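Let's sit down with a protein and look at its sequence and fold side by side. Please make up or recall a protein chain and show it to me in full. Label the sequence line and the structure token line clearly, so we can match residues to local backbone shapes. Go ahead whenever you are ready, and we will take it from there.
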Amino acid sequence: MFTTETLQQEIRRLKKENDVCILAHAYQTQDILEVADYIGDSFGLSKQAASAPQKTVLMCGVRFMAETAKILSPEKTVLLSHPQAGCPMAEQLTLEELAELKKQHPDSAVVAYINTTSALKTLCDVCVTSASALKIIRALPQKEILFIPDCNLGQWVASQVPEKTFHFIRGGCPIHTRITASDVAAARAAHPEAKLLVHPECLPEVSAQADYVGSTTGIMAYARENDASSYIIGTENSIVQHLQFELPDKTFYPLSKACVCEDMRLTTLLDVYNCVRGAGGEEIVLSNEVRSEAQRSIDAMLAFG
């Protein structure tokens, strides 16, 4: 019988023995983060996968993240920690629907949030992250932007780039959109001294009331660097726990108890153990055509620095 500690020790031994690099998205649980080689947001992890010396990469996250890692590391074996871990936002749009949208907006640059499938990336001009979207869209020569799939992130960017015209679909993260303006009012009343930090995937009426709006890594950096002693966290609730571990002298509160990603919760520490011993996970396989076409939109993002 394992304990958390003995299971973590065995994972650390096996990943070295079997030449496996463990990547953990920040929304994974604390016990998984403690055995990871790298922790971060989706695109940051994919870049780490490309530079890691190991021949096998284990992505503890969701499918589109593992696909992005495979795009950037085609020569490596890339495993997804749990085969059912998908992303509802990434899967909201089909190739056929996107092709039709491109016909409707022929003068638009097609900008894809990195949280999309590899198939959708093949029809896009450039990918963006929540941290880079504003900079990249400002720099694009096109005056019209077709932004997929998250209209909340897109509207947040659009509010700061009034010189461009945006087109959206009715898409977004169903987890972040669980947070309401009523949640903000309740949290502010309960913790009036706390800073409110939210992800731009939240509804506009939530983001508008925040002290800081930014990516997951941005939220965590703000909490580290700011002098306030307490914070209300408006993103996936695992971030509350991670910040509690990292900054025990500060206090963190979830903005909504409903902001929990069921797909991220699918991966357990035992899943990680099974993957590093060669008995679990799913290997990500992409055709050369899909991989090369999807990489084109990611390379365009990288070209903006």
